[in-house]
Amino acid sequence: MQIVKEIAIAFMIFLPAGIANIAPIPASRFDICRKLNIPIDFNKKFRGKRLFGEHKTIRGFLVGVLLSSTLSTLVYTVVDFHIPLRGSLVSSRIGTHTTALDLLYTGAVGYGALFGDAVESFFKRQIGIKPGGRWIPFDQLDYVLGALVFITIMTNISWVNFAVILIFGTTVHPVFTYLGWRLKMKNDPI
User: Fold this and answer.
1) If pLDDT is split at 50, 70 and 90, which confidence band does 190 have?
2) Could you tell me which residues are beta bridge partners of residue 155?
3) Looking at the chain, which runs of residues are DSSP E strands?
4) Residue 140 falls inside a structural domain
């Protein structure tokens, strides 16, 4: 039963990253903040190639972080989940009240996921892979590693939680990519 508990804790800790990773896709299909549909690289180039490309936008980052923070905090409140924040951050209990630290955590982990994805996009552009093109296994690892940086800085997670997040995050990505393709939100099934 302890492993089931560890898996559940890892899932809840990683939830903001999962939401942030998915959020920009539907946001790009709707007219949400069309004026913010500006590439985060502002069309700048490095070695003659775009830094990140057209798919990484200010709108995507904002929607990803806002949905990540809002929905994760809502889920934590409903299930009364306690984020194991590092002692220096002063742990808080989300179920009874929402604090700035709770929102900071969920927003930071969401940002970390999107940042990891942007870093991977930079390297894809530099080696000539077009936006939306495959780069296995990095397409599955990018947001997980970006989120884990913030998770390990902000929380006291066990190695079991870390391993579960790494395995779960990388294996669930292809499932959601396939679902996005079936829902005609993505161009590729993988």
Assistant:
1) low
2) 85
3) 45-46, 49-50
4) yes
* Separation of alpha carbons 35 and 115, rounded Å: 21
Position 190 in a domain: no
Those residues whose C-beta lies under 8 Å from the C-beta of residue 5, and which sit 6 or more positions away, are none
Residue length, the chain? 190
* DSSP structural state of residue 3: H
Contacts for 176 with CB less than 8 Å, ≥ 6 apart: 22
Tally of structural domains, the chain: 1
| Cis-peptide, bond into residue 137, ω within 30° of zero | yes
159 within a domain of the structure (yes/no): yes
CB atoms near residue 99 (< 10 Å): 13
Question: From CA 1, how far away is CA 38, in angstroms rounded?
Answer: 47
Range of the domain at 34: 2-182
Q: Which of 6-15, 35-44, 80-89, 120-129 has the lowest mean pLDDT?
A: 80-89
Q: What is the CA radius of gyration of the chain?
A: 17
> Within 10 A of 133 (CB to CB), how many other CB atoms are there?
13
The whole-number pLDDT of residue 125 equals 93
Q: Considering the domain boundaries, does residue 130 fall inside one?
A: yes
